[in-house]
Amino acid sequence: MRLFRDAGHLFRLAGLFAFGTLFILTIRSFLVPRTFGEYGHYRGAAIAEVAAHPARFAGHQTCETCHTDVAQTKAAGKHAQVNCEACHGPQAKHADDPSSVDPGKPDTAVLCVRCHEASAARPKDFPQVNAGDHSGGVPCQTCHQPHSPAIGSASAPASAAGGTK
Amino acid sequence: MPGVEGFMYPNEVSLYWSVLIVLYPFITGLVAGAFILASLERVFRVEAVKPTYRLALLTALAFLIVAPLPLQLHLGHPERSYEMYMTPHRTSAMAMFGFVYLWYLMAVLVVEIWLDFRADIVALSQSTTGWKHWMYWAMTLGSANVSERALAIDERVGWVVTLIGIPSAFLLHGYVGFIFGSIKANPWWSSPLMPVVFIFSAMVSGIAAVMLLYMALMRLRKQPIDMRCVDTVASYLFYIFIVDFSLEMLDLIHRIYEADESFRSLDFMVHTRLYFSQIVLQILLGTLAPILLLFVAQVTKLSEPTRKKIYAVSGSLALVGILAMRWNVVIGGQLFSKSFLGYTTYKMALATREGLLVAIGLTLLPLLILAVLMKVLPPWPEKKHASIPEAVAAH
Description:
The structure holds 2 protein chains of 2 kinds. Chain A is mostly helical. Chain A folds into 3 domains: about 50 residues, no CATH class; about 45 residues, no CATH class; about 60 residues, no CATH class. In chain A, α4 crosses α5. The N and C termini of chain A lie far apart (about 100 Å). Chain B is an all-alpha fold. Chain B has a domain of about 270 residues: Formate dehydrogenase/DMSO reductase fold (Up-down Bundle), CATH 1.20.1630. Helix content of chain B is about 70%, strand content about 0%. Chain B has 15 helices and 2 strands. In chain B, α2 crosses α8. The longest helix of chain B is centred in the N-terminal third of the chain and has 35 residues. Classes of the chains: A mainly alpha, B mainly alpha. At the A-B interface, α1 and α2 of A face α5 and α7 of B.
């Protein structure tokens, strides 16, 4: 009994710690979303919320139903595996209402160098140029047809006919 | 590109971990070192260092309170950091460290300080009035029992807490080394010796800091410095410094002998960009010079004023050396390319969230907190006796 009296302050300290722990656990029960950990270390309900977002990409099959000529040109060229919206951006709105939503054309002087600017980190056999030396700011499509970029291919712009590859 | 030499991958050009991440291991190191110095008195019964015991505990607490601030300022969304406690990820070392920090702060340091100062707190709650009285009364947790038996129980429990505290202090700072040592993609960091080197360098910095603080505070208070105490602290500093230096040399020799594919690149970096901070500041000025000075003080019979000067200089140099070591680890590890073909430069910002001014502020803030702590809980024995009324002391 005497021990309890002389160690009373330690019991008070232990009580304070227990209260603190309980307090934090109570707060935690309010702050942690209910669906946390349902599938993994994240909020389970987030999946349904993300899935409910409207689709922004139409998919290349949708593009190809109307733009059959471009699809054919592209299929025969080096960019056959590049998806339409990888360059043109998400076009679901245009696909839903083609007449009133104009997607516009990308600026090739900016777009092409994203993949083709010379960098030692890229594979050696991947086509790459120092854009400044190569074209001096002239848009790439002056010589290259973006859907089938090799110069001399059937669909290359007329201005580049007879140019070097 | 300015500041870039050779080939760098695009994501290596600018540094992600800034001077604040240099400061973070430096501050936690001071905490761990100061606590281990305090434990010398409590667990190992080194009576000579007793005058620094309470100061070491308060220093550890002051620095521990500031320790997470560099990390908070580094985070893009500091307001989300509490999530680490709400939904901890067991596979994340950083998340688990949050609990080590909390454990060390609440279960070790605060409890040990409370137990040691309890008699003073009770006395102060009875001798003060107004808000001070209520503050001290809250700190007593409503118990004024300072009987001999109650204090004996405190002493025993405090001993156990310190005993638990030593591995906790090792864990606290070992983690900081671990977080670098476990990054296998970075050859400058990836070494199992890293946590061990960090712990010993932490002890060096913590002991040096408490020794300097003790000497400076005694001078400020116009009190005589207990030379038996400072001599003992300096001898511990000397021994631990030798172990720390040996471990760092072991790491270096291992790297030179192993000479893996990164060696030429890292060797070049040490001889160019890190020359001043690594060779000059860390090794020559920050390690060899203080070891030599402490060695001279150990083996020769020098006068008291000379010893004081030697301890002040070697303590300061040790702190500079340990800060340089943190700099070389954190910044050095981000200066070279994973291709081992290029190097970048760290340009420290001045008045930004992670700039020099904030770093200086965070270095001074623990000293300000320590001043407040010492005002609330006077660590000096003479003040202790003066503040305890006779009646309470006799209780």
